[in-house]
Each structure stands twice: as structure tokens, then as C-alpha cells.
């Protein structure tokens, strides 16, 4: 925060006036600090869905929604996708700096040591119904980690955070691949210590006893890019859930399980699956993009352009730009063109030139092209949000650690009661 001369906002209520401190962040974001408001005036502020409210100070991620900027610990994502692996970015988010060679080796060893699922947990998969959505399986299994690793309740931030972070980042990747194999009725493939994070995941997903999986470096690189782009996004819905649940001193695994549940919503991380289902529907309906854009504008129609719009970005989501370019590169190497990609590009063009979308600053967000890339990699749509969750784990862990480190009080907002008053009783 800037150390400039303290500034204040004057608030007049009736004949009373109070000065509220102005807070300015390192990227010049400005806020009126109302933490003393109720004590001094008896008033609270009202801001449903916190659209105008900063819930905390944070040093992890900076988003500029007007300029389309996204930086993790001050480093632009465009640089990180070029120069780093996903596990390096995970370390950066959690520790606030890129790992030196020694720290990198230690973290990589921890990821390997924690890549296996407890064998008793593996048998959970025998009892999930065949069509169980992998996000529900993931949320259940992560919660169960606290039963198998109870010391997480005694987690001390310094020495144990790497162990618990590695266990989550590595074991959850194994759980995700096992959930996929369960879904398709194939035997699970175990992680290997000789493969890096993304190569291991791809191998666990696509290797099989009858057809060894050919790990292509360009696909491993692409998966690293996708996971890095989804790794954090400041106070989004699921991260706010993690900070809220964590503030009650719930153990890290149960807290992350809550983040998974929040992310699964179609307005949040579930949008990548909803985008592909929407594009499938447009193709099946004959591909008349203009008809669906008209539906998205019709207030009497619940249809929305999934993958479009964002609470913070009022310009093109910088992540969507990179994913669109990677999507184009990947599909140009493939013989069979995905009809969804052509429809997605046409839909984008129509919407971006339509007054309704322009007026409301509705642009493609991170979810618009992601699903098409995952499809091209052979990942089914019910696994798309699982991919988002795998990627967001380091972001959630970093925010949980920051929240605990700031000795945050339990999150408990106020309300404005508009219900019945005693005089109404019995009416
Ligand atoms: C993610 O917060 C994050 O950072 C999230 C995320 C992350 O990394 O964690 O970036 C990931 O969740 C991306 C968003 C994925 N969701 C979708 O793609 C679902 C489709 N998009 C929307 O439902 C919507 O745009 C939201 C939920 C993303 C944002 O909604 P807001 O900020 O609450 O905006 P709103 O619903 O009030 O919309 C404002 C106006 C409304 O019209 P008017 O009432 O002003 O006439 O824009 C319209 C809306 O009807 N609108 C859309 C639209 N999104 C907004 N109209 C048609 N299609 C859309 N997709």
C-alpha cells in the first residue's frame, strides 16, 4: 500500500459527518475503509454479491478488468506460460517467489512422494455409481483426505504447507485420472516418478494395458499452458468460498473441497463444459449462430452465451486470447477439423459486433475456447471442470495460506432484515 499522506472520504449522515480512511493498493486500486463504520455510526453498508466490495488485502494475483491484465505475484501470465511449468507457477503462487533449483527439487520430490492415492481410498472408486460426475467424486475424495491424513488439522503454516500443498496438487491429479478411468470402465493407471506433472497426468488418463500412450512434448507443453492460465484469479467465487470456509479454521482439505463445489457451478468453472454443450446444441440445430445470439439477448429467454461475459473483465479475457491462439495451433495440426471451433469463432465474431454485447462489455472469457482444446486432447466434457479444479488448487492454497497468515477473523457479513416484525405475529 502507498505510504502517501493519509486521505479520507467524508461521510455525512444527518447532521453527523465522519472521515473514513482511503486505502490505495500498489496498483493504485482505491477503497474506502469502512471497517469502523458500524461502531461509529450504527450503519452497515449494503452490497449484494459484493460487486463493489474488497473482502481483503492480497499480494497473490492482480487483475485489471479494464485493460485485460493478469499477473501472478507481479509476473504477467504471458511470460509465465512462455517460461514456466505449471508446478513452478504453483510454487510461485504459494510462496510468493519462483523456486530456486534446490527448492524446485524438494517440491518435485514432494509431488512424487504424494502422487499415490492411499490404497484404501482407491477402493472408494469401486463404489461410486458409473455415471457419477467427476467433480462430485473429486469433492468427496478431497474431503476424505482429512480422514486418512488427520495431521492436516494440526497444520502449521511453515514446515507443513509444502507437504499438504504437494499432497493436494499431486494426489488430486491422481484422483482426477482415476475418476476418468472409472467413468469409462477402464483399469486405473498409476502415477510414475519418471514423468513430470503434466506428462504423468496425460499418461494416467490415456495409457492402457492394451495400448501404451505416446506422450508428446507439444501436448505436455499445451497442458502446462492451460493449467497455468487457470491457476489463480484473485477473489473469484470459489476462492472466496475457500477464504470464507477457511476463516472458521476448517482444515485445508475440507476447505478445498468447498472450493471444488463452488467451482462446479455453470456460472463459474462449470462454464467450460456448458460452452461445449452450447456449441454442440448450435451445431445440432443447424449452426444458425445469429439465432442463438438473438436468444442470448432476449430477456424472456433464459439462454445465455456460455463462455461470454465476466464480472471483472470488461475487455477480452487475456487468458482467452492465449487459449484461442493455442486452440488454433492445435487444430491446424489435426486432420479432422472440430465443427465446434468454426461455430465458436463465428459466434464470437457475431457477438463482438453486436450492440447488446458491446454495450455490456461482454467478451469471450477463459472458458470459451478451453473446452474445444480439451476435446481435441481427448478429454471428455464432464472432465473439463475437473481440469479447471486441478489448475486452481495452487491458487486456492495460496489464498488459504495468506488468509491464515493474516490471522483473518471468521467471515460473518451483516444483513438488512426485511421480514415480519412482532406486530405481524399470527396475521
Ligand atoms: C469464470 O470471477 C472470476 O474471476 C471467475 C473466473 C476465474 O478464473 O475464477 O474468471 C472463471 O467463472 C469465468 C466466467 C464463466 N461463466 C460464464 O461464462 C457464464 C456466462 N456468463 C455470465 O453468466 C456472466 O457474464 C457472468 C456470470 C460471468 C458475470 O455475470 P455478472 O457480472 O453478474 O453480470 P450480469 O449477469 O449482471 O450481466 C450484466 C448484463 C445483463 O444484462 P442487463 O440486465 O444489463 O440487460 O449482461 C448480460 C446480463 O443479462 N449478460 C449476458 C451474458 N453475461 C452477462 N447476456 C448474454 N450472455 C451472457 N453470457
Short description:
The chain has 427 residues and is mainly α.
Descriptive overview:
By secondary structure, this protein is mainly alpha-helical. Helix content is 51%, strand content 7%. The protein contains 18 helices and 6 strands. It has a 3-stranded antiparallel sheet. Helix 12 (271-284) crosses helix 15. The longest helix has 28 residues, at 157-184. The protein starts with 7 loop residues before the first strand and ends in a 22-residue tail after the last helix. The mean pLDDT is 93. It binds s-citryldethia Coenzyme A (SDX). S-citryldethia Coenzyme A is lined by residues 233, 236, 267-269, 271, 296, 304-312, 360, 362, 365-367.
Features:
single chain; 427 residues; mainly alpha; 3-stranded antiparallel beta sheet; 18 helices; 51% helix; globular; binds s-citryldethia Coenzyme A
Per DSSP, what share of the residues sits in E-state strands of 2 or more residues? Answer: 5-15%
What hetero molecules are bound to the protein chains?
A: s-citryldethia Coenzyme A
Radius of gyration: 23 Å
The strand line-up of the biggest sheet is 1-2-3
**C-alpha geometry:** globular
Mean pLDDT: 93
Structural class of the helix and strand makeup? mainly alpha
Q: List the total number of helices.
A: 18
Order of helices and strands: EEEHEEEHHHHHHHHHHHHHHHHH
Count of strand segments: 6
Main pleated sheet: 3 strands, antiparallel
First and last CA, distance: 54 Å
The percentage helix is 40-55%
Give unreliable regions as ranges.
none
Amino acid at each position: 500500500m502507498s505510504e502517501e499522506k493519509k486521505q479520507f472520504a467524508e461521510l455525512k449522515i444527518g447532521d453527523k459527518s465522519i472521515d473514513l480512511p482511503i486505502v490505495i493498493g500498489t496498483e493504485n486500486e482505491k477503497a474506502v475503509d469502512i471497517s469502523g463504520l458500524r461502531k461509529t455510526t450504527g450503519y452497515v453498508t449494503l452490497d449484494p454479491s459484493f460487486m463493489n466490495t474488497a473482502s481483503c488485502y492480497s499480494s497473490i494475483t492482480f487483475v485489471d478488468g479494464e485493460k485485460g491484465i493478469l499477473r501472478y505475484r507481479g509476473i504477467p501470465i504471458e511470460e509465465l506460460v512462455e517460461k514456466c511449468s505449471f508446478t513452478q507457477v504453483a510454487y510461485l503462487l504459494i510462496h510468493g517467489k519462483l523456486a530456486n533449483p534446490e527448492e524446485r527439487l524438494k517440491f518435485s520430490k514432494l509431488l512424487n512422494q504424494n502422487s499415490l492415492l492411499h490404497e484404501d481410498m482407491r477402493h472408494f472408486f469401486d463404489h461410486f455409481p458409473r455415471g457419477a460426475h467427476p467433480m462430485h467424486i473429486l469433492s468427496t475424495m478431497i474431503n476424505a483426505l482429512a480422514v486418512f491424513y488427520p495431521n492436516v488439522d494440526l497444520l502449521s503454516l511453515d514446515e507443513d504447507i509444502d507437504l499438504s500443498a504437494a499432497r493436494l496438487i499431486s494426489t488430486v491429479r491422481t484422483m482426477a485420472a482415476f475418476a476418468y478411468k472409472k467413468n469409462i470402465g477402464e483399469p486405473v493407471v498409476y502415477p510414475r516418478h519418471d514423468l513430470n506433472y503434466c506428462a504423468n497426468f496425460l499418461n494416467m488418463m490415456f495409457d492402457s494395458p492394451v495400448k501404451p500412450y505416446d506422450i508428446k512434448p507439444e501436448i505436455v507443453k499445451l497442458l502446462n499452458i492451460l493449467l497455468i492460465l487457470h491457476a489463480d484469479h484473485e477473489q473469484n467465487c470459489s476462492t472466496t468460498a475457500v477464504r470464507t470456509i477457511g476463516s472458521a479454521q476448517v482444515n485445508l482439505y475440507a476447505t478445498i473441497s468447498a472450493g471444488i463445489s463452488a467451482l462446479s457451478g455453470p456460472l463459474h468453472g462449470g462454464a467450460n463444459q456448458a460452452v461445449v454443450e452450447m456449441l454442440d446444441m448450435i451445431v445440432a440445430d443447424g449452426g444458425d449462430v445469429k439465432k442463438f445470439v438473438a436468444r442470448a439477448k432476449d430477456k424472456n429467454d433464459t439462454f445465455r452465451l456460455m463462455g461470454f461475459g465476466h464480472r471483472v473483465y470488461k475487455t477480452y479475457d487475456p487468458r482467452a486470447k492465449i487459449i484461442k491462439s493455442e486452440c488454433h495451433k492445435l487444430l491446424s495440426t489435426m486432420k479432422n477439423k472440430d465443427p465446434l471451433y468454426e461455430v465458436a469463432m463465428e459466434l464470437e465474431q457475431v457477438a463482438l459486433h453486436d450492440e447488446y454485447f458491446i454495450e455490456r462489455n461482454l467478451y469471450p472469457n477463459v472458458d470459451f475456447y478451453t473446452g474445444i482444446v480439451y476435446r481435441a486432447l481427448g478429454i471428455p466434457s464432464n472432465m473439463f471442470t475437473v481440469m479447471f479444479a486441478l489448475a486452481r488448487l495452487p491458487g486456492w492454497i495460496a489464498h488459504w495460506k495468506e488468509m491464515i497468515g493474516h490471522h483473518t477473523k471468521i467471515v460473518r457479513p451483516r444483513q438488512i432484515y426485511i421480514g415480519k416484525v412482532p406486530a405481524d405475529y399470527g396475521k
